[in-house]
Amino acid sequence: MACTMSGYRDSSRMARWAAREISRALAMACRRLIFPVLRAPGPDEPWYRKPGLGIMYQIEYRPGMDWDRDYQEFNRSMMDGNGKLKFNGPFCRIEKWVELSEDVGVDYHVLESKWHDGICYFRTELTDWKTEVDYCGRFAELSRQAGIPFMFYYSAVFDHNPLFDPIQPNPHSTFSVLSMEPQPVYEDYLRGQYRELVERYRPDGMWIDWYWPDRATELTIDFFRTHYPDTVLTFNLSNYFPSSYHRIDYTTGEAHDLDGFYLKPVKTGAMILPIFTGAWRWATLFRRTADHPWELISPAGKWWQDPTLRDDPHELPRMAAVILGSGGKFCVGASAQLDGDLYPDQVKQLKTLGAWYRPRKKLFTDSVPLRYRGQQVPGIRTCPSSVRSMACIHDGDTLLHLVNVDGVTRPITVEFKGRRWGNISKIYLEPAWKELEVERGGRGARLVIRPEDIDPVDIILRLRTA
After folding, report:
1. Domain extent at residue 56
2. First-to-last CA distance in the chain?
3. How many Å apart are CA 392 and CA 311, to the nearest integer?
4. How far apart are CA 134 and CA 280, in angstroms?
5. What share of the chain is helix, strand, coil (3-state, %, to 5)?
6. What is the rounded average pLDDT of the residues 154-171?
């Protein structure tokens, strides 16, 4: 009976919280879709407040297992005869991972320090459910040597460490929120591990999973704001809950593909999860409505539990162009194999992303989105229409991004109509700084981009005015 009443209270609390969040989100969207957010250039902003590319190194995937799994069975499979952790990987190759970050040219990166299974990849005095090697310590050391801002992922919403079996609401599922009700043992554990992570390794930030109406979320925000206010703080899912927007340093959430709808259902184990998709839709919405820094994250593979390569190797770079060009950060999750190497196809995918990003980095990190209402830029018409337009301000010029969604290779026609575009004097192709021939007439202009100047990801045009 007590469990039934507790479940009812949790469901009721969730419903009230969701209703408040939806009401706030709708009110904000209605206002800001009419009067979009106006951003001012800020080249001296810290990394977490600017567009940027990141990698999250993930130790959560295990072949043959779904995201949702029976943790009573899983934990038994991970124990020796004395009930101690019998760790079998991933044995992280931190040196290779940091080298990959340098090769890709990331602006920051993240290491999973503790996923939902509760296994700690760092030196902790609070549990034996940990790796023998201090992977977080090595990541911190090498990240500093490379000059890359680094964060630790930490799962606060779920923790299936056997230490918490007596208070685990649902030991047969990953989805088992520990702190919907007061849990002093778990709450003290969170505070203690946060102290260990920050004081031992001094990360630039903490990436917490999830933002939720539980005590762990409130505790985490209060703890970091009180004790470690200089540690950058973000929560997964916080993009979608307005109450988070000005409580943490930036918000984040998932977007698993370029052009899907906002959500799609995905079956995992015995559950059906609503998965956030549609980077184009989310990014262009946040460009218009978000007056705070934000991020979208996506797996390098097809999804968190499917590390195989995406069908189109240009999809991730296009997602990066859309998200960064809208003013956000884009973090890509890379999956480790049990031996610690990343999946080779994902390494290949990330290097493709880096080869595209490195020569264009400053065109994104030092830009701010232009203010306009629609998903695409007013007064710009492209043929074919699958080439979509976005616009930013960079060094006083307008950068027009033409996202090549379908990877067209035939000539692309761009028409500029209206007063905003009537005084274009020159157009340069970036990053090659190649001047393109412009046809002028009336209150507009016309440009034909030849096949040799077409990028399969994003054609960037610098517009100079008279």
Report:
1. 43-368
2. 76
3. 30
4. 38
5. 35, 25, 40
6. 97
- 7: in domain: no
Q: 232-235 and 205-209 as β-strands: parallel, antiparallel, unpaired?
A: parallel
Sign (positive/negative) of CA torsion 238, 240, 243, 247?
Answer: positive
Which of 357, 335, 355, 331 has its CA nearest to residue 345? 335
Same domain, 358 and 404: no
Distance CA 399, CA 321 (A): 12
Q: Which tokens hold the place of 341?
A: 């190497």
Is the CB of residue 94 less than 8 Å from the CB of residue 142? yes
Confidence of residue 27 (pLDDT cuts 50, 70, 90): confident
For residues 322 and 325, what is the distance between their CA atoms, to the nearest angstrom? 5
Domain stop point among 349, 368, 387:
368
Helical H segments across 111-261, by residue range? 135-146, 184-201, 215-227
Neighbours of 243 (CB within 10 A): 14
CATH number, position 236: 3.20.20.80
Q: Does residue 184 share a domain with residue 106?
A: yes
Summarize pLDDT for 45-56 with one digit per residue, the tens: 999 999 999 999
Q: Token match 């299936």: residue?
A: 160
Confidence of residue 297 (pLDDT cuts 50, 70, 90): very high
Distance in angstroms (rounded) separating the CA atoms of residues 174 and 67: 7
Average pLDDT, the chain: 94
Instruction: Note the pLDDT tens digit of each residue in 439-456.
Output: 987 778 999 999 999 999
Judge whether 226 and 199 are in contact, CB under 8 Å: no
Give me the number of domains the chain comprises. 2
Buried b or exposed e, range 352-376, using 16+ CB within 10 angstroms: bbbebbeebbebbbbbbbbebeebb
Instruction: Quick: pLDDT tens for 164-212.
Output: 999 999 999 999 999 999 999 999 999 999 999 999 999 999 999 999 9
Q: What is the pTM of this model?
A: 0.95
